[in-house]
Each structure stands twice: as C-alpha cells, then as structure tokens.
Design goal:
flat, mainly beta, 272 residues, 4% helix, signal
Length: 272
C-alpha cells in the first residue's frame, strides 16, 4: 500500500471505500460478515468509483465528472507505487490513463487501480477514485502501521491496508490470502500502533477504537461522552483474533461497565 515515505504526493491508504464495520449489534464481537470482492483480471473502467457495501461487497457508484471546471495541472498527476511486503507479495497503486479530453476537477476524478500481486500474478484488483488516497486526509499515526502483513505460512497470511473513511475514523480492509489466493475480505478498526503485550500473557496485541469519540453537554450542562471501547486483537500463528477478555476488562476500567464491542452514544456516559 502507499505510504508517505515512498515519496508520492498521493498515497493509497487502502481500498478507499466507505464501509461499515463487520460486527454490529449489542455485545457481539465485530467478527463481520466477510465476503470475497475480487475482480476478474480484465481492463479496469477508468470512470468507475468503488465503494463498499455494509456486507463488504464492492460496487461502482458515482457519476462521471462534470463537463466543466477542468484543472490542467492535474492531468500530469500520476501515481505509480509498488510496496513489497514479503518475497513475491506486492501491493500496487497506479493511475489509470486518462484521455486528453477527460475533465479533471480534483483528485476524485483520477482513477486509481489497486492490486495485490504474488510472484508476478495479480490475485486481486479493483479501481477507485483518488480523493480517498490523499495522504493529508489519513491519520499520520495510523498510516505508519500499514500496510501490514501477518504471515500464517509460507504462502498464506493476512494483509491489512488502511483507507480514508472521513469524516469517521479511518478503517482497514483485511485480505485473507491462502495458497496465493484472496479467499475472504473483512473490515477492522485501524490500529493505533505496533503490536505489544498489553495484558502480560506473552502474546502481542494490536489495539484501536472504532471512532474518534464525542463529547457534549446534556440539558443540565453536564459533560457527556460516547461509549468507544478499545478493541484488542491478539496475534496468533493462525492470524488476528479479537481478544474479547482483554477488551471487556479494559472497557470496564474506562467506563465502569462493559456495554458491548460497538461504538455508541447510548448510554450517555458522564465525563469525569
């Protein structure tokens, strides 16, 4: 995935897709309803814009650029970034060639092709627009963690790439790769730093929240804030697994009670 240290003005922070996290509802863990979203290795549509449905599928949305407001300087803007994460595993972001007559008003009108390659073979490819990959829009702390490759065997593992989800907090897409094939995709919260042993059990955990959080005054002038638990994902030989025990324990310390794994503005929690 594109990282700012690779020197591009724009970098792709993941599939640029506005998504809903895969676990909602009560106290159920955000395990998600993952779905395979791989496109055939054909020629991408330069006018397509990819978006993610709540179930994790990719669909084309958005109208073609308007017939005015062209910015000539943007016609020369090109993206060509290849990041090697493991021997043979490459994440690539490339601008889609545009006809000279194409109207380019802003980075949103620049088609981008995202692909995952293994040993020279494209195992996943999709197109998206450039607005979602502006490095100025992706949290600088979060983007240091991604792209993240967690191998589970020689030819298998989990690949995580971050994408801009403004105005909400950035999210990450997790690609399950087995035998050099993408077998499943789901969505996770973005992690706030490298993995560490957060509970002293000898195993490392990544952690992150679903949202930035909110604070407001109620009708009595008291300061309230939303329920926004930190989720912990333990690194195991088989991949990432939600550490529900640690997540619940930390939520009780922070909020006095565990209200579930999801972000919520109810109950209204009195800020101390």
């Amino acid at each position: 995935m594109l990282l700012p240290q690779h020197g591009n003005r724009l970098y792709l922070a993941a599939l640029g897709l506005a998504c809903a996290l895969a676990a909602c509802g009560g106290s159920s863990a955000p395990a998600g309803q993952p779905s395979i979203s791989q496109q055939a290795a054909g020629s991408p549509d330069p006018n397509s814009r990819a978006s993610l449905s709540p179930q994790g599928s990719v669909s084309a949305t958005g109208p073609a650029p308007a017939d005015n407001g062209d910015v000539p300087a943007l016609h020369s803007l090109e993206i060509n970034d290849n990041t090697t994460l493991a021997p043979g595993l490459v994440v690539s972001y490339q601008s889609i060639p545009r006809p000279a007559s194409t109207v380019v008003r802003d980075p949103c009108d620049i088609g981008i092709m995202f692909s995952i390659r293994w040993s020279g073979k494209t195992i996943f490819r999709d197109t998206m627009n450039g607005c979602d990959y502006d490095p100025e829009l992706v949290d600088s702390t979060i983007r240091k963690v991604y792209p993240l490759w967690l191998p589970t065997s020689k030819a298998s593992g989990e690949l995580l790439v971050v994408f801009n989800n403004r105005p909400s907090k950035d999210l990450a897409r997790r690609f399950f790769i087995q035998g050099q094939l993408v077998t499943m995709i789901d969505t996770l919260p973005t992690f706030d730093g490298p993995a560490r042993d957060a509970d002293g059990d000898g195993k490392r955990e990544f952690s992150g929240t679903l949202e930035y959080g909110e604070e407001w005054e109620d009708e009595k002038g008291r300061l309230r804030h939303a329920y926004n638990p930190t989720l912990f994902y333990e690194v195991r030989p088989t991949g990432l697994v939600l550490d529900s025990t640690l997540t619940m324990r930390r939520a009780r310390v922070q909020y006095g009670k565990f209200y579930g794994f999801d972000y919520s503005t109810e109950p209204l929690i009195l800020a101390k």
